[in-house]
């Protein structure tokens, strides 16, 4: 990221210096600058088109509860800090166990530590422990519980799923709500699923 | 590592410095210098950076592939091949039950066609990006392709015709799209001696009305013209709107060795048709309904299914019954192209064997008609005196002129097959301005909006029949090609070569912003009215009707529902009715069944498609998703158990051990 910035700065500087010397060349010369920018854009920048269902990231970024609050704003910020936005818009299929803002507050110290730039990969690891590369709707989760099949998460960990009187509990956290998204499912939880060894 | 990187950065930086500051002078040099330096600036003009979009669409005919290809300009990148007249196993077109009716004709199911001249619909004399029409030469047909879905929506057969070549050009408000018969044939067809052709064959010119809202085509009338060969055509525009011009050859009416016998007359004709006059005549009850047999195939975007209807009659107009509507304009020997400039004043006949190009004047034509400046008649149709209609001759412009397109600055651009070049000339002065070689033997050329009052005249694409050594060799058969020119300056500048599919007969170009914003992304499941659609996994099922098995199947990342089916028997006819439940852009799924005597199906989000499979062997046979749809694509598969004829295996269908049900 830093390297990228400095490269961009050099490009900008040179473009600028040319501008001063030969006015006529400036427009064309902005091309390399645009390319550098372009390279950094991932699939997360693809806009939602009319009639299309939103994907997991688009839902998390725009969802509002009854009171008009954005319950996933911390999750989205964490995803952006970890630089894993593109993984949430991928063809998937994905099942995201999405912690609400309050869930992060419960682990404030851990979260603060993870948000430090040097812990970027640790943060990504924790986040991927909330995503299963699979198509697990509630019905399928019930089936997994019944058959005693564990959920394989994108972190490489296996999580236990239980069915307690019709309530689905993953890694000890009950699912509060479910949203169908174009590339899978979002199940809302109010706690973090921090892998024990991290 | 860091140091290496840093020094690399310095290098990049200095390279950038050089390239960003130096070109001021380099550019200046380029303009004056014909070769050498051109390469550098040409590359810049066609370079579309990764992730950037082209400025224009080019719809290039696939010729004997039967299809229509979609390219971007200026990059020359191929985006899509739209199946039109030929089966396409890649997309399941012509193989699945829904699209098979699109290829029905009066001769039965025809799996191939020879596509020729695409033309985009127009509003007020400008291309509007709603539909593109393309004709089929061999079994005469015209297709209409939606530029929202980029799929073929309609194909209509043209009766009393053979070799629908002078097609499918559209009038300036998309009132009509035309067809013309290249081969004179008995009209109606009958058993007769070939040598009795002269005077006994006819040439049908067909006018198909286009519905303003739906684009649906309907043959409004056919003009029963003399038995010449009708080659190409263009509508009048602006002042000449209401007229249509068709080039003819073989006015000798020879039926054998045409390369000699059809080149006897010094001049052939351009037929000028006042279609507004004929339209009024027909509106007042004119013309005669005649028995005919032709198919009209229409795609229903809600039912995701085409139907084919056999039409039984067509309205025929005899030229003698509408005096004042049809004239012949004498034109230099065996003209091929018949082009009308953006103002509608000049009609250009390119005599492919002539040493000169004929430029007629619409104003002079109207005056000549008024003055009755005729040079006799042919089969009752007045022949206008050459001098009375001719604006001038472009003498010795090159060898083998074929087609002309125009810019908005009063210039024509003509292709020369024999001398392999494009020549730019001023219409008014009849003077050659520039000529540029092409590689090799060019046929058509295209300027976006070419058949309209408002050509978008930055680019010109030449379409070449022969490429020889232009690309890496690929055995005896090599690609045909297109070449892109910048025509914004005085001199034409060659920018790019790119290969084409089949034979690029003609192309239609349009600014990308007239189409891109309307391009459909998905089919809404809620609008799906396919009779065999399953709109959720709960709706999936398997039903037996006698020896027919209907599988109502769904696909979603990353499974089929159901994916285990038992109770199918040898001798059954199994229908896979498969719905893609995705509602996400660019998430198609495919399906293929082992041993199916048809193609895969590639199914877009929200669509339902059907293939038939005849199980012939006892066993357990798999099916799978053919498109890498998702991370678990390789897991997207299923089994069908096939039991012997007369066995008692019950019919069951499951997903993960249960009958598929609703998500909770």
Task: Give the tags.
heterodimer, A: 198 residues, alpha+beta, FAS1 domain, four-stranded mixed β-sheet, three-stranded antiparallel β-sheet, 9 strands, disordered N terminus, B: 664 residues, mainly beta, Methylamine Dehydrogenase, Chain H, Immunoglobulin-like, nine-stranded mixed β-sheet, six-stranded mixed β-sheet, 7 helices, globular
Short structural description:
The complex is a heterodimer of chains A (198) and B (664). Helix content of chain A is 44%, strand content 17%. Chain A has 198 residues and is α+β, with helices and mostly antiparallel strands.
Could you describe the 3D structure shown?
The complex is a heterodimer of chains A (198) and B (664). With 198 residues, chain A is of the alpha+beta class. Chain A has a four-stranded mixed β-sheet. Chain A has two domains: 2-40, no CATH class; 54-189, FAS1 domain. Chain A has helices spanning 2-21, 26-29, 31-40, 56-62, 73-82, 85-89, 101-106, 108-114, 120-128, 138-147, and strands at residues 94-99, 131-132, 151-152, 158-159, 161-164, 167-170, 173-174, 177-181, 184-189. In chain A, strand 3 (151-152) and strand 4 (158-159) form a beta hairpin. Helix content of chain A is 44%, strand content 17%. Chain A is built from ten helices and nine strands. Chain B has 664 residues and is mostly beta strands. Chain B has two domains: 56-518, YVTN repeat-like/Quinoprotein amine dehydrogenase (Methylamine Dehydrogenase, Chain H), CATH 2.130.10; 531-654, Immunoglobulin-like, CATH 2.60.40.420. Chain B has a nine-stranded mixed β-sheet. Chain B has a six-stranded mixed β-sheet with strand order 40-39-42-43-37-44, with no helix packed on it. In chain B, strands 34, 35, 36, 38 and 41 form a five-stranded mixed β-sheet that branches. In chain B, strand 22 (374-378) and strand 23 (381-384) form a beta hairpin. The longest helix of chain B has 20 residues, at 2-21. The two termini of chain B are 55 Å apart. In chain B, 51% of the residues are buried. The interface between A and B is large, with 46 and 38 residues.
């Amino acid at each position: 990221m830093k390297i990228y910035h400095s490269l961009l700065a050099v490009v900008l500087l040179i473009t600028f210096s040319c501008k001063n010397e030969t006015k006529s060349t400036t427009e064309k010369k902005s091309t390399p600058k645009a390319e550098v920018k372009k390279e950094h854009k991932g699939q997360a920048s693809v806009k939602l088109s009319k009639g299309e269902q939103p994907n997991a990231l688009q839902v998390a970024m725009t969802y509002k509860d009854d009171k008009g609050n954005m319950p996933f704003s911390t999750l989205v910020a964490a995803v952006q800090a970890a630089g894993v936005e593109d993984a949430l818009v991928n063809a998937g299929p994905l099942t995201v166990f999405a912690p609400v803002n309050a869930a992060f507050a419960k682990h404030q110290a851990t979260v603060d530590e993870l948000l430090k730039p040097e812990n970027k990969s640790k943060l990504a690891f924790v986040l991927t422990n909330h995503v299963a590369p699979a198509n697990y709707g509630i019905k399928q989760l019930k089936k997994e519980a019944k058959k005693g099949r564990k959920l394989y998460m994108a972190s490489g960990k296996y999580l236990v799923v239980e069915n307690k009187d019709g309530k689905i509990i993953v890694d000890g956290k009950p699912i509060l709500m479910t949203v169908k998204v174009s590339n899978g499912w979002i199940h809302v939880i109010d706690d973090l699923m921090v892998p024990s060894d991290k | 590592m860091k140091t290496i990187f840093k020094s690399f950065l310095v290098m990049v930086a200095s390279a950038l410095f050089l390239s960003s500051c130096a070109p001021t002078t380099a550019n200046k040099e380029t303009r004056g210098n014909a070769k050498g330096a051109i390469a550098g600036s040409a590359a810049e003009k066609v370079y579309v950076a990764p992730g950037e979009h082209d400025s224009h669409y080019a719809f290039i005919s696939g010729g004997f592939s039967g299809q229509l290809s979609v390219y971007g300009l200026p990059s020359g990148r191929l985006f899509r091949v739209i199946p039109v007249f030929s089966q396409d196993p890649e997309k399941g077109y012509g193989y699945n039950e829904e699209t098979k009716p699109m290829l029905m004709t009066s001769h039965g199911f025809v799996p191939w066609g020879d596509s020729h001249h695409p033309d985009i619909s127009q509003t007020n004399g400008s291309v509007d990006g709603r539909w593109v029409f393309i004709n089929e030469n061999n079994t005469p047909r015209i297709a209409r392709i939606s530029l929202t879905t980029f799929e073929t929506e309609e194909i209509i057969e043209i009766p009393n015709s053979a070799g629908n070549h002078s097609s499918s050009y559209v009038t300036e408000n998309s009132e009509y799209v035309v067809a013309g018969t290249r081969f004179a044939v008995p009209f109606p067809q009958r058993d007769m001696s070939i040598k009795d052709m002269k005077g006994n064959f006819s040439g049908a010119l067909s006018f198909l009305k286009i519905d303003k809202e739906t684009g649906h085509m309907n043959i409004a009338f056919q003009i029963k013209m003399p038995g010449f060969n009708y080659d190409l055509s263009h509508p009048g525009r602006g002042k000449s709107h209401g007229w249509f011009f068709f080039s003819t050859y073989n006015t000798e009416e020879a039926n054998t060795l045409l390369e000699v016998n059809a080149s006897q007359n010094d001049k052939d004709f351009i037929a000028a048709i006042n279609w507004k006059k004929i339209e009024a005549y027909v509106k007042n009850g004119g013309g005669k309904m005649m028995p005919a047999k032709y198919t009209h195939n229409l795609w229903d975007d809600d039912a995701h299914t085409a139907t084919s209807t056999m039409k039984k009659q067509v309205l025929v107009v005899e030229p003698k019954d509408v005096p004042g509507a049809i004239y012949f304009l004498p034109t230099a020997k065996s003209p091929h192209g018949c082009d009308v400039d953006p103002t509608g004043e000049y009609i250009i006949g390119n005599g492919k064997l002539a040493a000169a190009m004929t430029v007629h004047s619409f104003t002079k034509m109207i005056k000549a008609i008024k003055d009755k400046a005729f040079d006799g008649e042919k089969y009752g149709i007045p022949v206008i005196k050459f001098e009375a209609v001719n604006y001038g001759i472009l003498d010795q412009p090159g060898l083998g002129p074929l087609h002309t397109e125009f810019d908005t600055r009063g210039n024509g651009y003509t292709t020369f097959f024999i001398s392999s070049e494009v020549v730019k000339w001023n219409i008014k002065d009849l003077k050659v301005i520039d000529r540029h070689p092409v590689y090799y033997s060019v046929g058509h050329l295209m300027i976006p909006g070419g058949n309209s009052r408002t050509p978008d005249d930055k680019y010109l694409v030449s379409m070449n029949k022969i490429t020889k050594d232009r690309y890496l060799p690929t055995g005896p058969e090599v690609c045909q090609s297109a070449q892109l020119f910048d025509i914004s300056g005085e001199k034409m500048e060659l920018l790019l070569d790119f290969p084409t599919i089949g034979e690029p007969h003609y192309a239609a170009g349009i600014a990308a912003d007239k189409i891109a914003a309307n391009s459909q992304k998905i089919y809404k499941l809620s609008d799906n009215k396919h009779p065999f659609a399953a709109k959720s996994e709960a709706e999936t099922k398997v039903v037996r009707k006698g020896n027919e098995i209907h599988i109502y199947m769904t696909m979603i990342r990353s499974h089929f529902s159901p994916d285990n089916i038992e109770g199918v028997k040898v001798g059954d006819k199994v229908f896979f009715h498969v719905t893609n439940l995705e509602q996400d852009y660019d998430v198609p799924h495919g399906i293929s069944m082992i041993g199916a005597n048809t193609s895969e199906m590639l199914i877009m989000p929200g669509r339902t498609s059907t293939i038939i499979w005849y199980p012939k062997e006892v066993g357990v046979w798999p099916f799978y998703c053919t498109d890498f749809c998702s991370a678990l694509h390789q897991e997207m598969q299923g089994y069908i158990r096939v039991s012997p004829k007369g066995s008692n295996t019950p019919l069951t269908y499951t997903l993960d051990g249960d009958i598929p049900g609703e998500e909770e």
